[in-house]
Recover the amino acids of this structure.
């Protein structure tokens, strides 16, 4: 299944295939780091704060996850980094999170980049702007509390989302204003129906579109120079994320550039309208004066983007597989004996494309690095951890034998002063500090 990609648009950006083919480099060297830092400085100085009213320039560190070594573009106030050959080097402590994200460390708010970074020029520029924007995002009032978006792992949620993406792709490629508006109306109709079916969908989706869709749009807008190139990237992103194992947390990376670029065409002042309850779809509907869709027209709209029913058939097959997988996860992580990990001061490192919703219980992480007061949990391929919806606890399946520190696809490393004790439910275990009674579980 593929999006209807126009040949001229794809030709403008065929280099994007390198996104999944860029070879890994052994370790970050000073020359490569300087290249990244110079590219970042060029991008932020070219914008000079024009798009969002604040400069993207600031502290950047590149981290090698293999040994936690850091190469940074400036010294840290804490004095950990040492000047060497035009950069600043050091090592992150073991408890510090490694991810492409905003990081507060050693008295500084950093843009943290995990090695290897994409070195195809256009991809590097989009990536750099996205991550630099994350550093200033809270100060712009564009950081939202996130929810699960678990509906995007269901049959109807996934189906309607992909129809929306197909309509957005056609809108981006449309040459005529009326054709573009018609395709936008289709996309918004699918969006409206999805949010009618799932009560919390509107708020949940809007939050992630602000948190990750806006940075990805900003990367495309400032990292690429020509409108044709930007539209090609946005269409490519909509197609690329179709292969994600789950849309639960990845969808905003796909549709953020599409909505942002379409808003640029329809309402150049839209950046100033992102209030606390802002929704990119609602802003685009207002800009084009698109009214609420007529539910009676939904069938015809579906046939326009899934004429042979192939997408529906594919998603129905996936749904059957999902239900089997959910049953296995429920048996292992909910019904069976579990190690319950209390969450107090948690830091998560994960692949957003692999998350899966376990009904209303919580979210399953097939790969995860979770750090908290008690230590670190690492889940690798073949394992799974459940983070409950209240985000107060996580669970992994208890091993049938051993010391309780390793299981099927997971490893637990405890800090000194913590131990495993029997849990509240028969067969479960949990973590407490040394010396704590059973009634003092964290």
């Amino acid at each position: 299944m593929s999006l209807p990609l126009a040949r001229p648009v794809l030709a403008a950006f065929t280099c994007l295939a390198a996104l999944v083919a860029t070879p890994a480099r052994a370790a970050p060297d000073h020359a490569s780091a300087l290249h990244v830092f110079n590219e970042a400085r060029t991008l932020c100085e070219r914008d000079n704060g024009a798009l969002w009213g604040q400069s993207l320039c600031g502290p950047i560190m590149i981290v090698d996850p293999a040994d936690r070594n850091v190469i940074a573009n400036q010294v840290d106030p804490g004095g950990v980094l040492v000047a060497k050959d035009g950069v600043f080097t050091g090592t992150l402590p073991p408890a510090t999170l490694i991810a492409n994200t905003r990081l507060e460390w050693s008295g500084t708010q950093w843009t943290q980049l995990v090695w290897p970074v994409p070195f195809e020029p256009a991809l590097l520029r989009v990536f750099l702007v996205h991550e630099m924007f994350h550093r200033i995002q809270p100060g712009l009032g564009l950081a939202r509390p996130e929810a699960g978006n678990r509906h995007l792992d269901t049959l109807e949620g996934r189906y309607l989302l992909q129809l929306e993406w197909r309509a957005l792709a056609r809108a981006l490629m449309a040459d005529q204003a009326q054709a573009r508006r018609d395709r936008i109306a289709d996309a918004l109709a699918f969006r409206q129906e999805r949010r009618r079916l799932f009560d919390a969908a509107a708020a949940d989706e809007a939050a992630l579109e602000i948190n990750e869709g806006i940075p990805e749009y900003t990367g495309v807008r400032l990292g690429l120079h020509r409108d044709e190139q930007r539209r090609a990237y946005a269409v490519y992103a909509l197609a690329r994320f179709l292969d994600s194992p789950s849309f639960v947390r990845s969808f905003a990376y796909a549709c953020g550039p599409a909505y942002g670029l379409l808003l640029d065409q329809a309402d150049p002042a839209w950046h100033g309208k992102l209030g606390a309850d802002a929704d990119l779809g609602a802003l685009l509907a207002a800009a084009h004066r698109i009214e609420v869709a007529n539910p009676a027209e939904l069938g015809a709209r579906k046939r326009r983007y899934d004429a042979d029913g192939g997408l529906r058939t594919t998603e129905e097959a996936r749904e059957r597989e999902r239900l089997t997988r959910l049953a296995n996860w429920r048996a292992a992580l909910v019904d069976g004996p579990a190690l319950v990990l209390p969450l107090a001061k948690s830091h998560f490192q994960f692949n957003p494309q692999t998350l899966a919703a376990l009904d209303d219980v919580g979210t399953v992480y097939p790969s995860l690095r979770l750090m908290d007061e008690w230590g670190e949990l690492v889940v690798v391929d073949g394992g799974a951890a459940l983070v409950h919806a209240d985000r107060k606890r996580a669970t992994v399946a208890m091993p049938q034998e051993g010391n309780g520190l390793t299981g099927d696809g997971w490893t637990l490393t405890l800090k000194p002063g913590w131990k495993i004790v029997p849990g509240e439910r028969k067969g479960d275990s949990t973590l407490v500090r040394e010396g704590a009674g059973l009634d003092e579980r964290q």
